[in-house]
Amino acid sequence: MEITALSYWQEFALKYGIYGLAFNAFIEAIFFPIPPDVLLIALCAANPENAFLYALVATVFSTLGGVLGYYIGLFGGKPLAERFFGSEKVNRVHRLYESYESLIILLAGFTPIPYKVFTITSGVLFASLRKLIVYSLIGRGLRFFSEGALFYFYGAQIKSFVMHNLNVIFTALGAVVLVLFLAYRRYKKGVLP
């Protein structure tokens, strides 16, 4: 079943090209379960010379979708959260989230963590929209441009490697970034020598 769905989206990508990729990247950042990587990989494998253009489109439209997700969380989710949990608890979680929001958005942008969860959560917790945009562009850009670069330099034969290994690599990089960030925070607080 999963293979059939992926095949359908790859065919969709080839049929609608860059417009299908833009649409998928936008809606995936809000609610859609199929990540833009599926379409991006299909397009890059078909036209490796345009891989950086595809990566740019995926990055920009994913970030724009993230902005809409933010506003959905802000105007829809925040009132619900305050109603169910109370404004004091929401404010407490906001303060905790605020301490790590840049890192959270960055990691959600380039790891397999569902990006949409954090775009909407950023709105619910009234995080900084500017940080959401900046770190989404960085995180999503790292992910999509890495994929694009592999296809641009190695061609369609890299497709199998990208499909089977890139999520593991991005997860490992995310773990390294997280450890370095936490070590830096501890060092800055004077906990580490």
From TrEMBL:
Record carries keyword Transmembrane: yes
Chain segments annotated as transmembrane: 12-32, 52-75, 166-184
Q: Name one Pfam family in it.
A: VTT_dom
Q: Give a GO cellular-component term.
A: plasma membrane
What keywords are annotated for this sequence in UniProt? Answer: Membrane, Transmembrane, Transmembrane helix
Tell me the ranges covered by the VTT domain, including all copies. Answer: 34-145
Q: In which domain of life is the source organism classified?
A: Bacteria
Spell out the protein name for this chain.
Answer: Membrane protein YqaA with SNARE-associated domain
Organism from which the protein derives: Phorcysia thermohydrogeniphila
